[in-house]
Amino acid sequence: MRIQRVSSKWAKTAVILQNRLLAIFIPETRKYKMEHLSELLEVYGTVYIKPDRGTYGTGVMRAERRTVHLSPSGQQPDLEDTSADSGVPETREQVMYILRYAKDAEVYNSVEELHAALISKIKGRPYLVQQGIDLLCHQGRPFDLRVLTQKNPAGAWETTGMLGRVAAPQKVVTNYHNGGSIVSVDALFKEHMKPGEMAKMILQLKSLGVKIATQLETAYPGLKEIGLDVAIDQHHDLWLLEVNTLPAIMVFKMFPDKSIYRRIHRYAVAYGRLKRTRPATRPRRKFLSKL
Asked: What InterPro entries does the entry give (predicted)?
């Protein structure tokens, strides 16, 4: 049987939301339109606008709703410092919208202007708008996690690997292909958690991978592997950002513990994604006959 792939983020999200025990991990997500953009920005302040189909973080944008304080001259403050200055009289508040993509930032005075700018970038393709999560950071840069769950040779789901992805400076996505850095989960967690909480969090992530895979399999029985993109917020709650049904596995070769990749590779061979590698053979020695 061929390995099943599901490209639509919306379709996968809809299946997971059918399970009320797993729905709590899903940030509020809707199909993109201006009304949904406005409503989610009003509630959460920050949202992500992402293509329904796509990989590597390509096309992902972030929008923020900011209340800024303008000076009497009407001059706008710097985007990175929008706090009120109580020592300056006669300032007035104004709601502004900031759109970030790649390393660029644009400012709009209304959600209608923001929507028009997004429409010019979306170009008619199906997009989603999703609640923004205040991510934990590593050395001042936000990170999320990739959790790999595979079918083992016995046919059961098993979480086989996890790693952290740290965003490149000023980038809105953490993906390695967009300049993000790969960091071990232990190195990321020890900045924010005690050893006991670290161990508990890792067990929770492994369990979440199996539960999400099991739920998706109810609709897509040909799945053999999934990669979960998981965020951890400032309260250490887990959020499932999306699920990839063609997850990268070679990246796990980067870690010193090679046993992790060997198991991932062995499982991938068992369900047909990779071919079995033959052990290298020693070249035959050539013997010269004595004269």
From this structure: YheC/D
